[in-house]
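INFO batch 0412 | record 1 of 1 | parsing
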Amino acid sequence: MEILKKQIEDMDVLVLKGRLDAASAKELKGKVVALARENRVKLIIDMAGVDFIDSSGLGSLISSLRKVNEKQGDIKMVSLQKQVRSVFELTRSHCIFGIFDDVEAALGSF
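INFO prediction complete | emitting tokens
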């Protein structure tokens, strides 16, 4: 998995490319924890490049959300592909994450 970070004012956008699975979940969680340590807790995760997510990947996102929530932050998800969105809906994770069509819409929600 490739994770690119962009900063827009006081928000960070993590652009993911690849599979979010057991092999990459720890890396994503580590990036979010490092940002949280710096009080960078307004995060947008761009999933346009993610074509697969498993329970480990979803678990890392939920754990990351808890970490930023502890510091009054939030994580917004954008550009979920159909298969990934299905996983979010099956696990009811779409109820705990704000899901948006694009980064601009997510930026406006903060």
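INFO post-check: The chain has four helices and five strands.
INFO record closed
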